[in-house]
Structure prediction request, 238 residues.
Amino acid sequence: MESKKGVLFLIPNVLGDTAPLEVIPLSVKKTTEQLSYFVFEKEKAGRAFLKRLNPNIAQNNITVFLLNKFSATEEIQEIITALVEGNDIGLITDAGCPGIADPGADLVAQAHQNNIRVVPLVGPSSILLAVMSSGLNGQSFAFNGYLPIDKTERKKTIKMYEKKSKELQQTQVFIETPYRNNVLLEEFCKTLNPNTLLSIACDITLPTEYIKTNTVGNWKSNKEDFLRRPVVFSLLVS
Prediction:
């Protein structure tokens, strides 16, 4: 008889310096209380989040695996082995929901291939919250991640996504490294049609939250400063 396999819990993290229980359900806290195995992107950040979510957690009693963009296949397999041996494991990304713009997706894919149950838990996703609050098309949208760094390639790619948005009436969603936010906004203003709608969602769920949708023409005339702040950009050709 095959032994019972563990469960992979996908545990949401906060999007910034917010008290966890202000944005994460109590049920998530209760789940973490039952776990002894966790997967983090960075151990220090992961342990700090667990301590804030669950101050009484015995840090010395938990086993930690690391999973980031540099992780080798063998490291993912080590986590899968622990699951196959019957250990429930919580996967926690540095911010937001595991598996969304996150290397944890590779672990989730391997879990499915090994018939391991995957349980997603409710919590904040900057991408979904940005689309929700944009007023753009939430019936059809695409998350495209980062645009190319090369200026020529980036301009070409922006025009391509604008054309795609017009043809499909589809919201196109992007993120950028925080210190390049203003550069990307400048590029949008130079490259996109003035009538294209551009939504900027900044510091989502934080006290400094800023969310606004406007035409590119209006953004060009009234620029804001988003340097070193987490931003999600969304555009739609109306």
Remarks:
- The CA atoms of residues 77 and 160 lie 38 Å apart.
- The chain has a mean pLDDT of 95.
- The longest helix spans residues 151-168.
- The first strand starts at residue 7 and ends at 11.
